[in-house]
Structure prediction request, 187 residues.
Amino acid sequence: MAVKIRLQRHGKKNFAFFHIVVADTRAPRDGRFIEQIGSYNPNTNPATIVLNFERALAWLKVGAQPSLVCRRILSYEGVLLRNHLDGGVAKGALTPEVADKKWADWKAQRDAKIETKVTGLKNEAIAAAKAAKAEEAKVNEARAEAIAKKAAELAAAQAAEAAAAEATEAAAEEAPAEEAAEAPAEA
Prediction:
């Protein structure tokens, strides 16, 4: 019986996540499996991978073949490197101490790379938020200036209307006084 390490799709349309399973090659993609050894969620940034390292390594050692995507996941998690180093120890090409040192160096380098990516994403998000806040402040300032300008124009128009109304009132008061002065002179 040929055994494969592959992904089993779950989730909903346009938002899938996957279980990493060990299954018979003849079983359907989402069907029967022998053992579930982890999960993979590509919807997060960086992608979330939960893997039972020891079980994945044990299945590789007994001959399970990973699919292409699972091979990349196992490589990313270091399972393939550990299997390779253990093979070298078994052949006598490496000592267990050298293999462990190579493994620890690789693991530290990988963890540092992941941490750099996560902090970079956080810094980008903070910078984007600051830029958005500054842009919003500029827009609000422009709106406040436009409102103040409109209010000043409205106040000037009201002042002009009030001055015109006073002028017409003054002219209206002067006109009856002039008519009254002219009326007795005619009589």
Observations:
- Residues 95-158 form one domain.
- The chain is about 65% helix and 20% strand.
